[in-house]
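Extended Data, panel c. Modelled sequence:
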Amino acid sequence: MAYLIFNSKEEAQARSEQAGIAKNLSYHKTRSGSRYWWGVSEEAAEENPRAYIEIKKFVWTNEETNEVHTNIPDQALLNESDELLEELPEDWVYPPDPMEPTEDVITTDEEEPPLVD
């Protein structure tokens, strides 16, 4: 995968809509249906969260020649100003892991009354 990073969710959505226009998505003809070509994800920062678009990128090696090949299916939709990154920036704020145990354990000394039929 590769990533296009934006300063805001709105910037990322505008870029995705630009690609949607290039792909002639239905929204841009009828004002209904799909509007955005790519999905947008936002970082978990509380202030000024950035956003990214994940771009499919396939890399494989020819076993006979050891030549590395790269294919980006949406290459035609990318602009010269689009900078693809191999990974998210080091300072990216990820959401908390929902499977991680938390320290916020609620305990109570009171017993709950039994359920009544």
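The first helix runs from residue 9 to 22. This feature is highlighted in the accompanying rendering.
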